[in-house]
Amino acid sequence: PGPGEGPHAGAAAPPFGGLLWQGVGLRQLYGYMLLHACLWALSWGCAIALLQLEHTRVLAHDRTRGHGTVLLLFWALAFAAENLTLVCWRSPLWWWTLEDTNQKVQFGFWLLRYICTFMLFILGMKAPGLPHKPYMLLINEEERDVENSQVSPGTEASRTTSTWKDFRRKLRLLVPYMWPRGNHLLQGLVLFCMALMGLERAINVFVPIYYKNIVNELTAGAPWHTLAWTVCSYVGLKFLQGGGAGSTGFVSNLRTFLWVWVQQFTNRQVQVQLFAHLHGLSLRWHLGRRTGEVLRSVDRGTSSINSLLSYIVFSIVPTIADIVIGMVYFTSVFSAWFGLIIFVCMSLYLTLTIFITEWRTKYRRDMNTRDNEAKSRAVDSLLNFETVKYYNAESYEVNRFNDAIVKYQVSEWKVSASLGLLNQTQNLVIGLGLLAGSLLCAYFVTENKLQVGDFVLFGTYIIQLYTPLNWFGTYYRIIQKSFVDMENMFDLFHEEQEVKDVENASDLRLEGGKIEFENVHFSYVDGWEFVVSKSLFLCVQVGPSGSGKSTIIRLLFRFYDVRGGCIRIDGQDISQVKQASLRAHIGVVPQDTVLFNDTIANNIRYGWIPATDQEIQEAARAADIHDRILSFPDGYDTQVGERGLKLSGGEKQRVAIARTILKGPHIILLDEATSALDTETERNIQASLAKVCAHRTTIVVAHRLSTVVGADQILVLKDGHIVERGRHEELLQKGGVYAGMWLQQQTTDEGESKEHQTEKPQSSKKVS
Fold first, then answer.
1. How far apart are alpha carbons 417 and 424 in whole angstroms?
2. How far apart are the first and last CA of the chain?
3. For this UniProt entry, which segments traverse the membrane (predicted)?
4. Rounded to whole angstroms, what are the CA distances from 692 to 562, 593, 619, 668?
5. Distance in angstroms (rounded) separating the CA atoms of residues 186 and 661
6. Cα–Cα distance between 661 and 668 in angstroms, integer?
């Protein structure tokens, strides 16, 4: 039957099936048929993906303009496929003449499809979009549980989520690191690397063509100078291309060398930005974090960004470009059947690769979780080395670490097994595609439709095309792994700062250092409220452990913001001033002093970085630690070890006091500053503290009442409330909580003094 006739002519047959049937019937497959069929198949593939997404989860979680990504892609491809018909109006299968009823029906169906796809495409860009997340129906029961319970990203529910979720958001975070803003040299390098990548694509096309010309010229007996020129051109192109995949050629090596500078810029930017962000997070977050997991996430996340940029820009994009170029070349030069074989093979390969890789994502994510747990357990155990020794728990810790490693290796085996399945599937698809194309090309050569050189060209080109395609699965797995590795780092970036400077915040103008707490309410654990009922001047707070003494200092330093009321310094609400200016005027000696793994001098210098050695020594003398430092073999250059573990508790506390003295703040906060000192050292240092705190507002948190007897005002806290206030003598006369604590501590001190006097003669006797 001719065009417009036959049982299928008047029916609205599916474009792919109808065109394929007509192509077989005419014993010819036109190029436009292939393009139309490929685009239509891709659009239906997107539609199936859309149905799967709608079945498992809501398509979009935020209100957006227009369709989501999948819907917009589907209707864009459908509209593009219908427009291809206009390009092929000279084809014998075109119904423009409307000679009979069948052609009119075909034209009517096409016009209806064209109008519908056009309207859906336009409406997809202008539609108001889906409602906001809180008013949406969560179809997936598991996702509804996640929404209600607000689980963390590390839960089982999140582990089953595709790593390509929020892909555009993640890509937007990567783009700024690929384009170095403010650095014109690196921007020029980026553009030059892109040009080199385009040159590689052109070289990949010309290498098989020149190889074909060599074979044809040898077969035809071409002159030597012609053959020599062709061979030299081929070798030159091969030198630029490299081993066939563009991985070892001159152009690729030059691009890789130049891209190193961009990678270093990216790595530096990510690490510095993340480091600054972590320092901007609240004390609440830092108290709840696990150091091992955070460091592991930062390490893997920063390295994965370079992997993503390199593989997406210089591996995935070039591979897809090579596939498209190959389809166009073989369709136009050889036959549309070759383009169809390449399209089917590539589509099947990519589909199976993506499907299997997405399926095995849960194993990779579980392996990362187990790895984090093992590393975190090791770090936690080593940081508590002394505690492990105290309780003879080495075997227990080793067994716990061994269990964590075993769980990690079980997950690792699942990852390796699923990887083997993926590789075998890819090899099968590649083999079948190569077999079909080679048989078809050999048939055309025997029919004298193609030359021997064309068979060589096809074999060379298809192997050259399959090489990056074979790596495509690896690229996809690496990119997917990098996205998995980046998830925890993105979570760190998304941690919001709990305490922020308000807009247009001013610097703190310190005059007399007057501090006021006005009706302050605070709670950082559920069910606990801390209340200061009215305005007052704070000097000293005393009380039993857990009464809220240290919390007041953290509120004043703005580690937390109050839930009600306000804190003022010289009449200025501290929530309305810049945190940097507030903290510049406040010096703190914490209860639990942690030093940097550096020298004693540098730990003291941390109070004021530009300080000279002389100023450091003066601060150490004021803290009554100068002589002790000089007794060390290395003096001020003595390394204190990690967290200052090489020093005793009293030595660490005095280094912290010296650091605060060096800072020279107008307000001093002493949080159990002498709690780690013995009685004799405490007496020696109290005189130094009195000199340092003179003419400064000082808040002392103390459990040992002997350190606060000279305070202008003492606040006694119990269960988060101020139960007594006044001077030392006044509180003793009241006979309340303070008097009871004073009597109890005096009795304890007398007992310790008698015990110390009894032990002295005994020790002397033993020595003699």
1. 11
2. 125
3. 29-51, 72-95, 107-125, 308-330, 336-357, 428-446, 458-479
4. 29, 19, 10, 9
5. 46
6. 9
Q: Tell me whether residue 652 is in a domain.
A: yes
Collapse the DSSP code of 726 into the 3-class scheme (helix H, G, I; strand E, B; otherwise coil) and give the result: strand
Nearest residue to 553 via CA among 691, 672, 706, 675: 672
Taking phi over 0 as left and psi of -120 to 50 as alpha, with beta for the rest, 182 belongs to left
From the list 454, 508, 540, the residue with the least C-alpha distance to 712 is 540
Q: Within this chain, do residues 3 and 94 fall inside the same structural domain, yes or no? A: yes
In the three-class reduction of DSSP (H, G, I as helix; E, B as strand; rest coil), residue 701 is classed as strand
**Does residue 2 sit in the same domain as residue 87?**
yes
Check: CB of residue 196 under 8 Å from CB of residue 251: yes
The sheet with strand 515-522 has its strands ordered as 530-532, 515-522, 564-569, 572-573
| Domain assignment of residue 244, given as a range | 183-265
Q: Decide if 273 contacts 301 (C-beta within 8 A).
A: no
Q: How far apart are CA 604 and CA 653, in angstroms?
A: 11
Structural domain includes residue 325: no
Token pair 């149905």 is found at 51
Name the domain count of the chain: 4
Question: What one-character DSSP code corresponds to residue 77?
Answer: H
Put simply, whether the predicted model's pTM sits higher than 0.70 gets the answer no
* pLDDT single digits (tens) 164-178: 566 676 677 677 777
Backbone angles phi, psi at 715, to 5 degrees: -105, 130
Asked if residue 113 and residue 48 are part of one domain, the reply reads yes
Low-confidence ranges of the chain (pLDDT < 50): 1-27, 54-55, 57-66, 127-160, 244-246, 524-541, 760-768
For the stretch 697-721, pLDDT in tens is: 888 877 777 777 777 778 887 776 7
Q: Which residues contact 221 (CB under 8 A, 6 or more apart)?
A: none
